[in-house]
Amino acid sequence: MSKSSNRLHLRSSTSLSLPGPLLVLDLSIFSDRPSKVPALPLDTHINPTINLSGDNGSLSINSPKDLTRSQSTHLRRTIMPVAVITVDAILFDMDGTLIDSTPGVFKAWETFARDYNLEDSAEIAHATHGRRLYDTLKEYCHINEESKLKTEIDRFEDEVIQGGPTLLPGAIALIEQLRPETSHRWTIVTSASDNYAPRALSRAGIPLPRAGLVTSNDVSHGKPHPAPYLAGAQKCGVDPAKCLVVEDAISGLKSGRSAGAQTLAVCTSTTRETILKSGADPHYLVNDLTKVSAQSVDGKIEVTIYD
Description:
alpha/beta, Rossmann fold, DNA polymerase, domain 1, five-stranded parallel beta sheet, four-stranded antiparallel beta sheet, Sugar phosphatase YfbT, HAD-SF_hydro_IA, HAD-like_SPP, sugar-phosphatase activity
């Protein structure tokens, strides 16, 4: 993909997954060789002109010279990615990144607030997001006996499951882009237990990663400690520095950073402003996973990130 003056040029080999109204053109009729069909969002008020070329089935969009600066900027932002990076593996958080279990979590904390005489269940739910129940039930409910702690973790997670975890936008589409060539190069690193995580993923329709899960049972320290994402990189057999961590929680973003990975924040449970002020310092920031696409390139994963 190249850009010169006010022309955006996309080769037919470019594969993009972009938001917005789509104009899909079959360019194979202009070339002797079959070509992939780029899907390009067009903003109708900009009214760009489209030129077709028989050279490798390429397509160009010309922005008229009389466009205002704001219109021209809008066109570039609509089509051009914020970043294209190549990594060895992608390490996903689960709750708040791939699935939404918010109703169940709030309901469970309401129950535990009554049982343990806690003051503000909603505030606790926000404060503990992304952390292990093993740590948060100790901190807020003062449960220190291991057997009781395990029982209460199971009870809490059962209530969350009853709340019905649901799929978040873009999650399945992105995961499907990682199979089959790079199916061993992604995993899910969650603060949930090994009892809850597979059930929640199954309920939301997300396949278990071929590399296996990293759950709270697999690490001695939870997020924001780097241990969970170091374990995730190990699951995929790669260097943590060559991984992309995808997270919605501040504790998880800090965990990924501490592990040495690049981090991508999704603003599904935490506002953009809160993340930026948190000190988590993510490398990239998007609203949700519909702004991210991936493809296998020479055994690695090329990730395209849109604003």
